[in-house]
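Hey, quick one: can you model this chain's 3D structure?
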Amino acid sequence: MHALDEYRPPVPPFTESSAVKKVRLAEDGWNSRNADKVAMAYSLNTSWRNRAEFIKGRDEARAFLQRKWNKEINYRLIKELWAYTDNRIAVRYAYEWQDDSGSWFRSYGNENWEFNEEGLMINRFASINDLLIMASERMFHWPLGIRPEEHPGLSALGL
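Sure thing. Here's the predicted structure for all 159 residues.
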């Protein structure tokens, strides 16, 4: 038996079904905006490239997430599986957020993930672009937190 904080199913090798589930769990976690909880999905020695920032280890990941969600107010994220192999998953995503001046943005990105045997992410490589949008252009309108099952995903929204 694995310690809960060091085991995150689904674990590799991934099937299409388990990869889709892993992506949705990641989306739900990030939509919680709980940096302590989300950081536990990453290995102690996780390595990230997020835009031009390089993050080493779970503690740096947690600090990064806290900074992110302090800056990105009203954050709502949708992730979609792009491809998978035995222990890797590629996703595309979009999220909407507001800055402290009230401006809205939609950020588009792609991530490549690599997992260890316990299902913890050991590598995360993210490329992201931000687009300033009008409030009337927003598409993600659910209450803060996890996206409801009935809310359309990226493909259904034409994103």
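One thing worth noting: The two ends are 41 Å apart (CA to CA).
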